[in-house]
């Protein structure tokens, strides 16, 4: 078991943070971490990190109305599934995420806080979209409200990063997630192609873990180019759609795009306090989170199917565009209800979990029907015999022949 999962690991890391702050000034620490960091009291498990938000939404966000994940909750809400969020960290104190965030890990970070410090707010929003719980007094929930979040912090400041040093850290985080029982890995980020990153993705796929990644957002004055790890084979690459079901203009297009999720005018939990943040420009980062939430629902509802079958189910049940599939949105908007409940397969090869063909119903009048059939058969035979004898009888009468009487020749 990793040190981060042992009892007392949190206290040791908080004490380590205090020792670091005793050496470095507050200004230096803020510069290294990309923002202000509040020193926690001994009773607090993790410091308050990142920006605060505004009031909670009073109406259901359009993305939740469009996807209607509650329709799939009659089957399950994601219980037993762990989703690794490899991002800027996830703050566990928000009411929406309270009790949902497991101890994680920090990669390439000065202060180690088990992935539970989000200075940017990006990872916390992603986690809320995936597994925000019910019963907070707001009409906002996650797609899989009973799933758990495993936070892995790889980006201190940037939401998307093409720094050549980053792919290696992302690859390490992927392997760590796999080795710590993640069933789904959410990668709401893009980076450069890298052998170590590609190897880590393949490691996850070989271990039967669902990998969902952002197809990427267009950069100003830059043509579309493949985004990694989304462009690797086996990864579910996610594009963004707007309220009208149209392709979000900033969402990268490419042959590797598999599916789409809500990617514009997004709302999610803030990392500090109990408020919510709005992202009007959205992005494929958040679309990816919606698809990861549905993947968690599918894994919980169908624990015996493979990661490849989960991906197949997501794309086969999506709300397809008119042409079935295209480079903008792949197979279309993810559909939670259909992804969880549809029976996929053929008559010769029924899908896992399909019900057997029903037995023919018992006929309470079966014996009467049998007797009636025999009566009809016997009656038909008798009618045939009578119809055959009738010409003989007619001819006999014409000749003066009578049944039961024998003609005796008379004497001359």
Commentary on this structure:
Residues 78-332 form the Peptidase S8/S53 domain. The protein is α/β, with parallel strands linked by helices and 412 residues long. It has a single domain, classed as Rossmann fold. The protein is built from 10 helices and 9 strands. A 7-stranded parallel β-sheet has the order 2-3-1-4-5-6-7, sandwiched between helices. It has a two-stranded antiparallel ribbon with strand order 8-9. Residues 1-46 and 346-355 have low confidence and may be disordered.
- Largest sheet: number of strands, sense, barrel closure: 7 strands, parallel
Determine the CATH topology. Answer: Rossmann fold
What share of residues are in beta strands?
Answer: 5-15%
- Could you say which overall geometry the principal axes of the C-alpha atoms support? elongated
Compute the number of strand runs.
9
Q: Regarding CATH, which class?
A: Alpha Beta
GO molecular function, one term: peptidase activity
Domain Peptidase S8/S53: 78-332
Pfam family, one: Peptidase_S8
Main location: membrane
In short:
The protein is an alpha/beta fold and 412 residues long. The chain has ten helices and nine strands.
SSE layout:
Elements: H1 9-23, H2 26-33, H3 62-67, E1 82-87, E2 105-106, H4 122-131, E3 148-153, H5 166-179, E4 184-187, H6 195-206, E5 210-214, E6 236-241, E7 259-262, E8 266-269, E9 276-279, H7 284-301, H8 307-316, H9 336-341, H10 366-398
């Amino acid at each position: 078991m990793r040190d981060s999962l042992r009892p007392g690991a949190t206290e040791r890391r908080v004490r380590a943070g205090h020792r670091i702050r005793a050496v470095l000034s507050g200004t230096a620490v803020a510069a290294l971490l990309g923002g202000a960091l509040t020193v926690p009291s001994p009773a607090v498990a993790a410091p308050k990190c990142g920006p605060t938000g505004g009031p909670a939404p009073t109406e259901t966000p359009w993305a939740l109305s469009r996807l209607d994940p509650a329709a799939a909750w009659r089957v399950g809400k994601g219980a037993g599934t762990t989703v690794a969020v490899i991002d800027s960290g996830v703050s566990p104190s928000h009411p929406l995420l309270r009790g949902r965030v497991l101890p994680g890990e920090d990669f390439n970070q000065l202060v180690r806080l088990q992935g539970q410090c989000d200075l940017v707010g990006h990872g916390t929003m992603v986690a809320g979209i995936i597994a925000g719980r019910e019963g907070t007094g707001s009409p906002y929930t996650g797609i899989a409200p009973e799933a758990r979040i495993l936070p892995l912090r790889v980006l201190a400041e940037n939401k998307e990063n093409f720094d050549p040093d980053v792919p290696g850290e992302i690859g390490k985080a992927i392997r760590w997630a796999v080795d710590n029982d993640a069933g789904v890995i959410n990668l709401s980020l893009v980076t450069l192609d890298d052998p170590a990153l590609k190897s880590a993705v393949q490691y996850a796929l070989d271990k039967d873990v669902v990998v969902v990644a952002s197809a990427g957002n267009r950069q100003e004055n830059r043509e579309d180019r493949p985004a990694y790890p989304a462009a690797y084979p086996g990864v579910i690459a996610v594009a963004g759609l707007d309220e009208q079901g149209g392709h979000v203009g900033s969402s990268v297009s490419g042959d590797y795009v598999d599916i789409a999720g809500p990617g514009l005018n997004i709302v999610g939990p803030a990392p500090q306090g109990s408020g919510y943040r709005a992202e009007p420009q959205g992005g494929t980062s958040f679309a990816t989170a919606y698809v990861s939430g549905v993947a968690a629902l599918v894994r919980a509802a169908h624990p015996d199917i493979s990661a490849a079958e989960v991906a197949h189910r997501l794309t086969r049940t999506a709300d397809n565009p008119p042409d079935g599939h295209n480079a903008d949105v792949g197979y279309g908007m993810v559909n939670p209800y259909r992804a969880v409940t549809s029976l996929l397969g053929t008559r010769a090869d029924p899908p896992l979990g399909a019900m057997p063909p029903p037995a023919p119903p018992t006929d309470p009048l079966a014996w009467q029907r049998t007797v009636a059939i025999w009566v009809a058969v016997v009656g038909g035979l008798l009618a045939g015999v009578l119809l055959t004898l009738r010409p003989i009888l007619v001819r006999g009468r014409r000749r003066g022949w009578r049944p039961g009487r024998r003609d005796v020749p008379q004497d001359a």
